[in-house]
Amino acid sequence: MPRSAATDRRVHFAGGRYGSGEVSEEELMQDLGEGDDELLGDAMTEDLGDEMDDDGNSEAEDDEGMGDDPFNPVELGLKEINNLAHFGVSSHRPGSGVAELLSDDLDKYWQSDGQQPHQLTIHFLRRVEIRAIRFYVDYNQDESYTPTHIVFYAGTGHHDLIQFAELTLTNPVGWQDVPIANSGGGADGHSLCCWIVQMHIKENHQNGKDTHIRGIKIYALDDQSLGSAAREPARGPRMDLSANHVPAPAAHGLNEQSLRELLDAFERHPISNTESVREPVIR
């Protein structure tokens, strides 16, 4: 039984060919009958779904790109030194303490459970040269638990802590950098050299009482990434002891022949580092 023109148009429409221009909108509406409302709705939903998928994927990619953290410690010659420190908090809820704070899972967090200001104390096992301090907060998830005013202190002990940074945050989402440039430490004056770092959370958004911190990272210079030249201690000018080149300034009053005889004597009778040193004898 041959199909009618209207049936062919419906087939074209259902196959997504309406969008390609084979069937105009006027022709389509004329040929679709009362029983074709479902077909029209399905096709429109399909077309809208395709557009939403395309836009959705694009927006998802954009959101993912915006969420990427540009901080790359390897490229900056830094290494994390959390393992060199003991972390302590002034208070915490069960299941939301230091372990959750140091976890790489940003869905976990430290939640305080006491009076403000809430304190996080980082006590290092030795004196460190800090180049970066970063912590993670998320206002979209935590709202009134998100800090808005934080003061940072550092020193050699609890008795000599000095304020070195202060942050005011407004609806923050993501990793926050603590300003430590010009702290005075290191070869360039941009390092924070200390034993202890303290973080005092004085206020939260919406006058919230307790706080959420979802992660913290401390970084120092990575000697391995700076190259062997940076790790070698400073040395004086090297002397070439070959027979064909004996610099005159190194002779210290000896002529060339005497210096060569002295070097030959050292080669024939080397001094061993393992020889025992005799005790001085009083005569």
TrEMBL record:
Where does it sit, as one GO cellular component term?
anaphase-promoting complex
Where do the DOC domain residues begin and end? 57-245
One GO term (biological process): anaphase-promoting complex-dependent catabolic process
Read off the Pfam families from this record: ANAPC10 (PF03256)
Q: Which SMART domains match?
A: APC10
Q: Does the keyword Cell cycle apply?
A: yes
Read off the SUPFAM superfamilies from this record. Galactose-binding domain-like (SSF49785)
Q: Where is the composition biased (Acidic residues)?
A: 23-67
Q: Where is the composition biased (Basic and acidic residues)?
A: 1-11
The segments labelled Disordered in the record are 1-71
Which key words are in the record? Cell cycle, Cell division, Mitosis, Ubl conjugation pathway
**Family indicated by similarity:** Belongs to the APC10 family.
Protein name according to UniProt: DOC domain-containing protein
